[in-house]
Design a protein that fits this description.
three-stranded mixed beta sheet; signal; single chain; mainly beta; 5 helices
Length: 558
């Protein structure tokens, strides 16, 4: 009897303690009240009244089911997935932008371009499209060949993570130029350029890295034949087809101060037109293909505001001039020096060495209008030196000075057309090598008074002057922007020299904000020629350039 009583007393005490503990941790609105238990002891038997034990079925699971139905709640993992998806969607919507402009003007011109891009995250991209055309130059008619059209699209995609970087890009461009009745053979000519490039970089342990890359392009040009067959044209004047390909590999080591890497590169360009359609370049061993191999060691040292860099290499190929091997090198440095006249530092840069590059034929024909190559381009080499300084005199005023010297070495001249001479019988200026000794200087001044900005520049060639440039060029401009709602800009350029155009180039533009994303703009270029309905010579040549336009534009950014 005593044992039974002790057992019941222990159970009662445990029940009391359990109920008390549960009452402390639960909120008042969730407390469970149990009725008092009345125990009657009669003789040697222990009995309980009918209502003396509470009905636990209201809160305990049924013995048949063995489970208790509780309110359904989202798991932490599910909440995190939903949250991450929402953040990702929000981020994607916020970091993709579009900007550009579209408009047209007089006389008969149209311009449009836009970019769609994402710069942040691990997968940025950019897609660009542009188109521009003009018909009629001042008093000259498009039917007489005074027109041009240019269209292109470019795309770039990056994949980034902590240890690697992959970049892919491609482009397609074409341009159509009227020959302004200057050619007895062609009414106009058109070129197409399509290509792509890629690079991949891997970061290894202890600062080591390797990088692979390459680019390739296909370029073709052809002319529209006129009705006349009285003039004979060369094969290189009729059309051109070039293919270029450049794979490269580099490996190096980098830390907070040093960057040392080795580069190996192979460059080739091929004449994919008919055999013997091109002549052989001077000192080249082939008229159909150019092959070049380059090995280079690069070194950088950076310490806070100072950087020193150097490079040395070796070049071999079948079209590098009279030399069997070339040894280009570079030595330079730049520094940012704090001083008392401005919170901005004084920036200095100086470099020099033996520079040797291969300008591809397709790039040269795109660069120089109304000009064509009679052969595949070969190596061009220069002794060169360059110095520049950016001097902030006050917080609102700065002076930028630069000078560059280049002199042909090994007779590997620069590839350029001579626009001051007569073109070929078919109307094209010939792109060929010319030795040069150039000394170029540029001085720029700028002042920023918040709402009003002034700038001026003076560019000079003191020795040889490129045929597409003038000896001296002076430019002054002013921008008035009282607020973000509207602005005005005007500039004037005066060229000086023996063959320089006497009439200065006067430009004016203004814009007003129509909304947070849209601006309306009006641009007038070469206003004096526009008003007088006169043309301007293109680079001292017999051709005229597109000048004197007034254009209305809508500029947007979303």
């Amino acid at each position: 009897m005593k044992k039974i009583f002790l057992i019941l007393a222990a159970c009662f005490c445990g029940t009391f303690v359990f109920a008390q503990t549960e009452g402390e941790v639960q909120s008042s609105e969730n407390e469970i009240e149990l009725p008092d238990v009345t125990t009657v002891i009669s003789g040697g038997a222990l009995t309980a009244g009918k209502d003396s034990v509470p009905d636990y079925k209201k809160i305990l699971p049924d013995k048949n089911t063995g489970s208790l139905e509780l309110p359904e709640m989202e798991s932490v993992q599910k909440k995190e997935q939903v949250s991450q998806q929402y953040v990702q969607n929000s981020s994607d919507e916020k970091n993709v932008y579009a900007q550009g402009s579209i408009g047209g003007g007089f006389p008969f011109s149209f311009a449009g371009d836009f970019d769609i891009y994402r710069m942040s995250g691990n997968s940025p991209f950019k897609v660009s499209f542009f188109h521009k055309n003009a018909e009629d130059f001042a008093d000259k008619k498009a039917a007489d060949g005074y027109f041009f059209r240019k269209t292109g699209i470019e795309a770039e995609k990056k994949f980034l993570n902590e240890k690697s970087e992959f970049i892919f890009s491609g482009w397609y461009k074409n341009q159509n130029e009227g020959l302004q009745s200057k050619s007895p053979v062609f009414t106009d000519y058109l070129w197409n350029d399509i290509g792509g490039k890629m690079s991949a970089k891997w970061s290894l342990k202890n600062g080591w890295y390797i990088q692979l890359g390459g680019n390739g392009s296909y370029f073709n040009r052809y002319g529209t034949k006129s009705a006349s067959d009285s003039v004979f044209e060369s094969e290189w004047e009729k059309s051109s087809k070039y293919f270029s390909f450049v794979p490269q590999f580099s490996a190096g080591w980098k830390n907070s101060m040093f960057d040392v890497n080795f580069l190996a590169k192979y460059e080739t360009q091929l004449n994919v037109k008919e055999t013997d359609s091109l002549e052989k370049a001077p000192e080249a061993s082939s008229a159909e293909a150019v092959h070049k191999g380059e090995f280079r060691l690069n070194f950088d040292w950076t310490d806070e505001n100072v950087k020193v860099y150097a490079s040395a290499g070796v070049i071999a190929g079948n079209s590098i001039g009279k030399q069997n091997v070339l040894f280009p090198f570079l030595l330079g440095g730049k520094a940012e020096i704090p001083y008392g006249l401005s919170f901005r530092p004084l920036c200095l840069k100086i470099e020099g060495g033996l520079d040797s590059v291969l300008e591809f034929a397709g790039n040269l024909e795109q660069k120089y209008l109304f000009a064509a190559l009679y052969c595949l381009s070969s190596e061009q080499s220069d002794w060169y030196g360059q110095i520049s300084a950016s001097v902030p005199v006050q917080d609102f005023f700065s002076v930028n000075l630069s000078g560059e010297f280049r002199k042909t070495v090994f007779d590997n001249g620069v590839w350029t057309p001579d626009y001051k001479t007569s073109p070929s019988s078919a109307g094209f200026y010939v792109i060929k090598q010319e030795n040069r000794t150039e000394l170029k200087s540029v001085a720029e001044l700028s002042a920023d008074f918040e709402k009003l900005k002034f700038s001026g520049s003076w560019k000079s060639y003191w020795l040889d002057v490129p045929s597409y440039e003038d000896e001296q060029s002076l430019t002054a401009s002013v921008i008035f922007e009282p607020d973000n709602l509207w602005n005005l800009k005007a500039s004037i350029t005066k060229n000086l020299g023996d063959d320089a155009e006497k009439v200065p180039v006067l430009d004016f533009s203004g814009s007003v904000r129509a909304s947070n994303s849209i601006r309306l703009a009006l641009e007038a270029t070469d206003i004096i020629k526009l008003v007088t309905v006169k043309t301007r010579a293109f680079a001292h040549s017999q051709y005229k350039q597109n000048c004197g336009h007034i254009t209305a534009l809508v500029k947007f950014q979303f």
